Amino acid sequence: MLINSQPILFSAIQPSGKLTIGNYIGTMRHWSNMQNKYECLYCIADLHALTTINKKKKIKNEILDTLALYLACGVDPNKSIIFVQSQVYQHSQLNWILSCFSKFSELSRMIQFKVKRKQNSAENSNIGLFNYPILMASDILLYQTNFVPVGKDQKQHLELTCSIANRFNLLYGNVFTIPKPVISQNGSKIMSLLDPTKKMSKSDINKNNVIFLLEDVSSIFSKIKNSITDSDNPPKIYYNTNKKLGISNLLEILSAVTNKKINILEKELNGVLYSEFKNIVSDSISKFLIKLQKSYMIYRNDECFLKKIIQNGAIKARLKSQETLKKVYSAIGID
Ligand code: TYM
């Protein structure tokens, strides 16, 4: 049962493409424990995914894949509200209203938009990509959210969310709670394996840059073996994101999949060669993925159960979000 006096926590993932170990480490790995401290809402952001997916069957399957992964990571439908964004129409309604309180100039400054614009030509960029952070603000603000656990790449979107909420509150009183991002010190930006200066991303064309949560573990060894480290002589394994990008990235991954602190790992790995270090990392990732995938398969094979979770989650999320939407309508005088 949800206890209403707990602070509210909201997070979401787009069900586009296969989720990566970066998604897990940056956010999902914290979700299970958070259920004991907060009233949690975990959303599957399928409307956001429409900016890049347009195939009906693909998105339907990816929603179920994502949900089964949430459950495999320990999200419990009896403790948290798990729901699909498109099934709670309040998100789209608040999205329009908040668009009228957002500035073209501030959206144009969003780094993720600029990156995506570079990837697509101007003619092929849809307006959804531009509007994307406003829908994200709507997701968060509808639930009077206190905390939002995300990776570092979402920080700017959360800052924008706060600006929009503050602007609205200044005009109409305290309608929205101002949310705080929860970005962990380690693992909030897992980098690409072959280029540790850029973020590991599920949309990367080169799949050797990425470890997917559902990939066959037989490919892990070669991906890690080919990952970029450095040519320090003698080789030294320690955490320093200025001098040792590749090694620090592998240490962050190792720390997350083994649940060991980085300073403990540094001691254990003192004097170990890079080749041996990479074997340890591959082995630990593989063990972690095998366990996760086993649990995932059990949930994924029970579509009836998954669909029931989605139905129940939508009912609960609609009730909660309607309270805020009503307040917003009344504040602006369209109630
Ligand atoms: P998405 O689907 O791109 O990513 C989901 C979450 O994973 C984190 N993440 C990473 N963390 C560490 N290292 C990486 N390489 C890495 N790649 C991704 C992201 O920071 C994110 O936390 N717009 C969001 C989804 C969303 C949302 C929201 C999130 C929609 N509404 C409301 C929070 C609150 C997105 O596209 O995330």
From TrEMBL:
It is an enzyme of class 6 (ligase). One of its GO terms (molecular function) is ATP binding. One of its GO terms (cellular component) is cytosol. InterPro entries: aa-tRNA-synth_I_CS, aa-tRNA-synth_Ic, Rossmann-like_a/b/a_fold, Trp-tRNA-ligase, Trp-tRNA-ligase_bac-type, Trp-tRNA_synthetase. ATP binds at Q14, P15, S16, G22, N23, G151, K152, D153, I190, K199, M200, S201, K202, S203. It catalyses: tRNA(Trp) + L-tryptophan + ATP = L-tryptophyl-tRNA(Trp) + AMP + diphosphate + H(+). The keyword Nucleotide-binding applies. A motif ('KMSKS' region) lies at residues 199-203. GO terms for biological process: tryptophanyl-tRNA aminoacylation. Its EC number is 6.1.1.2. A motif ('HIGH' region) lies at residues 15-23. Keywords: Aminoacyl-tRNA synthetase, ATP-binding, Cytoplasm, Ligase, Nucleotide-binding, Protein biosynthesis. It is found in: Cytoplasm. L-tryptophan binds at D139. Catalyzes the attachment of tryptophan to tRNA(Trp). Homodimer. Belongs to the class-I aminoacyl-tRNA synthetase family. HAMAP family: Trp_tRNA_synth_B. This is Tryptophan--tRNA ligase. The lineage of its organism: Bacteria, Pseudomonadati, Pseudomonadota, Gammaproteobacteria, Enterobacterales.
